[in-house]
Input
Amino acid sequence: MRIYEKLLAHKDEIKQTHLRKLFQDDPERFNRFHAEFNHFLLDYSKNNITQKTMDLLFELARESGLKEAINDMFEGKKINTSENRAVLHTALRNRDNHPIYVDGQDVMPEINRVLQQMKTFSTQVRTGKWRGATGKRIKNVVNIGIGGSDLGPAMASDALAFYRIDTINFHFVSNIDGTDITETLKKCNPETTLFIISSKTFTTQETITNALTAREWLVNTLGSEAVSKHFVAVSTNTKAVSEFGINPENMFVFWDFVGGRYSLWGAIGLSLMIGIGYRNFIEMLEGAFAMDNHFKNTPFEQNLPVILGLLGIWYTTYLGAETYAVLPYDQYLRKLPLYLQQLDMESNGKHAKKDGHFVDYPTGPILFGEAGTNGQHSFYQLIHQGTHLIPTDFIAPIHSLNETGQQHDILLANFVAQPEALMRGKTADEVRAEGVPENLVPFKTFEGNRPSNTILIDKMTPWTFGALIALYEHKIFVQGVIWNVDSFDQFGVELGKQLAKNILPELLDKNKEISHDSSTNALIERIRKSRSELKRIK
Ligand code: G6Q
Output
């Protein structure tokens, strides 16, 4: 029997066994199903698994060639096959600096050069050596970028806000909705504002449009000579950067072998480095590097990203889960679900296998989440009593960076209680025993048997943060290998973009003929009419 069939057959055994029973039958269950790495504890005992499940999943990983795939990624092989690119965000945090070759060339000298350039620049901005055109210190840093050129630095800037310099405010503008840039500029003064235009291609419509608005805003007050003191770029496209008017000396490069959503570790992290300083940034890279080595060198049975990845496969492919929730019990990590939405769904939301055939099994799950305990007061209802199977990751630091009052103890009590409640539930008899009237018993009953992972981290530091993000990157990698999809392209975002390009001129010219479906035509006509009336009124 192939491993796929073995797992399918095993699924029926598991479906009949309640987690409560598995815990009752085996006092060693936690010992059996937890793994530790450095400042991390992963408790995966509250999953719908037995030892047999895990053994089969590890077999699946081996049969899928996971070990070889991991080596290929770290060695710079062109594993992004649809774009014929290496995948080397790990090289950006290769802290022992061993050579890594792409097309016969060691990429490390160039990576180290950019890191030094970032160090010099960020130190100048932080110490006030870098001044605006009128000689004033920088007080606002605005990163303009979108997708991978926004979510990473925006999420990390929040996650590490405790370590951030407090004389500079950080803003992240991404949306093409003019409200985003307008509301941000309201908080800034041109004389003390530095814009970082972050765009790998430097052709992204949203970013370039917002950057032009920012430049106009600045030039209106300070004149065009001021641009060089207030604009820097992070990009791979030198030509477009100089055409925009940014001095290529103030450009920080990255490379084709770093995908947008994996780019936080290099120049796209410039705003973060200004915020937390070079040393903390390096500490973050060290944490990610440690997780890289753990992923590369640890047997699957103790390997955190492998275990998490396989559990996700178990639920999505075999148990029919369509969603997956990430629930950080840490206010600093409140943007983590947003960030992971891109990382996970853009990477594994694919229907074509690497060989070009379509899959006949489900791939990447729909990811959502919210910081605890806020989520408890909104959508947890559905996780506890709804009809969907939703595997969850609970994440919390044991020690808070802000030990005020009793908050952190209460937070942790909730963090521990929720997975317990999901696992054990509450039977009708237990509800009755509390004296609940019979007509209310069904409403107060909890089925339980709902899976979760619990990730305990000692404390949120740049190191643990770096390791945590790398953990999720690698988890997603594991799943991509097993589903046999290219986790590093994102052609799915193209079609909508192309259509928007065609529709823009149709919105602007009310006489232009349109020939879409009736719905699209009607929407275009309604917008045209309403906006031309508005223009007349103005
Ligand atoms: C991420 C994607 C995508 C990209 C944005 C911005 O992996 O590639 O989110 O980061 O589309 O692209 P630019 O950096 O080229 O502006």
